[in-house]
Amino acid sequence: MKRLVKPLLVSTGSRVVSQGGEPYSDRVLKYLPSEVVLGYAALGAILSAVAEGDTAKEAAAWAAFVVGLVATPLYLLKSERPRGQQWGQVVIAIISFVIWAYMLGGPFAETPGYRAWMGGLAAASWSLLVGAFQPTVQEPEARVPDSTG
Q: Which terminus of the chain has a lower count of CB atoms within 10 Å, N or C?
């Protein structure tokens, strides 16, 4: 599966034409950097086995977060070359990673005011709403075959 959303082709000519694009459900899946989030969750599971009094635990948790934050755009850039509005997906993926990382706890769980339910609410809301973003490509005179004959 390709990781970047295929842009919707929109004509700016006399006829308004839309071609391509991807369904909402596919966009939601592609906007979540699931491979990076799974790696981050695995690192979190390893760190949960470290004793609570170990001073390196918090630093390691923040390091895991930074690794995920850097890995998110690098993974998308390595898997495909974003063009035009697809760069918006890179930004969306970074925001998605931060929200999901917060939901999973990790280093955030030790910060004052952290509430796991707030992370869950943010992750669910963001994941459902972000699918509304559909990258487009505008072409001056997109030609579509005439269906009349």
A: C
**Global confidence as pTM:** 0.80
What are the structure tokens assigned to 70, written together?
A: 């850097």
Q: Which amino acid is at 37?
A: V
CA–CA distance, 147 with 15 (Å, rounded to integer): 14
Structure tokens at 93: 């993926």
Stretch among 28-42, 78-92, 103-117, 119-133 having the lowest mean pLDDT: 78-92
For helices 116-129 and 24-31, give the axis angle rounded to 10 degrees: 130
105 in Cβ contact with 32 (< 8 Å): no
8 Å CB contact between 40 and 68 = yes
Q: Where are the beta strands (DSSP E) in the chain?
A: 8-11, 18-20, 136-139
Instruction: Specify the pLDDT at position 87.
Output: 86
25, 134 in Cβ contact below 8 A?
no
Place of tokens 């004793």: 51
pLDDT value of position 16:
47
The Cα–Cα gap between 129 and 19 comes to 22
